[in-house]
Each structure stands twice: as structure tokens, then as C-alpha cells.
Amino acid sequence: FEGAQGLPVCGIGGTYKGACAMHAALGRTGPMTREDIDGFIARFGAGRKLSEADTVLLMRSVPDRMHTVIPGLVIASEICGRFASEIVCYSDSGVREGFLYSEVIG
User: How far is it, in rounded angstroms, from Cα 9 to Cα 87?
Assistant: First the structure.
């Protein structure tokens, strides 16, 4: 893993898609960072009394993942820490598409 230190993390799936939606809903521009993810965890994490505005933001940006997005973001933050990555990207193409491309098309 030494060669991967400091490179951006590219995530697939609902947690990363939800994080991007939350990032946009908060009016943030530019790349999402580990600091953004840690901020989401602090703002929306367990034990927090959510304001009405924060509840609405979650319902609009991650309606199908309201209960799972924060645990997923904790894992994403740990991955960023393990690889000393500050930038987090999201890819719409997932494992299925990669498999199809390499095994069927390629």
C-alpha cells in the first residue's frame, strides 16, 4: 500500500454517492475532502440532536440511506486515514461495470 499513500480515494456505491449529494446540498463546490466527510460525521452522527434543517437535508439528499450513510462515512474516513488521502471522488461506474468491461467487452 505504500505506493498508494496520498492518492485520492475513489469510492463507488451508495455511501459515496450520498456523501456527494450531501456535499452539493450544503452548497460546497470543488472536490470533496476527508475533512468534509469528518464534518458530516460530526454534524449528522449518532447521539446528535438534528435540527429540522439538517433532517430535511438528509431526507432530500440521502432518503434511502438515512440510517446507513454515517456508518459508511466512518469507514470512508478510516480508509482515507489509512492511505493518507485528503481528496475523495465518487464513480458512477461500479464493480459490475468493471467486471463486464474486463470479462465481456475486453
Answer: 6
Q: Which helix (H) or strand (E) holds 77?
A: helix 69-82
Q: Which helix (H) or strand (E) holds 40?
A: helix 34-44
Give the separation between CA 99 and CA 55, rounded to whole angstroms: 37
Residue count of the chain? 106
List the grid coordinates of 73: 462515512
pTM of the entire predicted model: 0.82
Answer for the pair 76, 15: CB distance below 8 angstroms, yes or no.
Answer: yes
CA distances from 68 to 5, 10, 73 (A): 27, 19, 9
Kindly report, residue by residue over 6-36, the tens digit of the pLDDT: 889 988 888 899 999 999 999 998 999 999 9
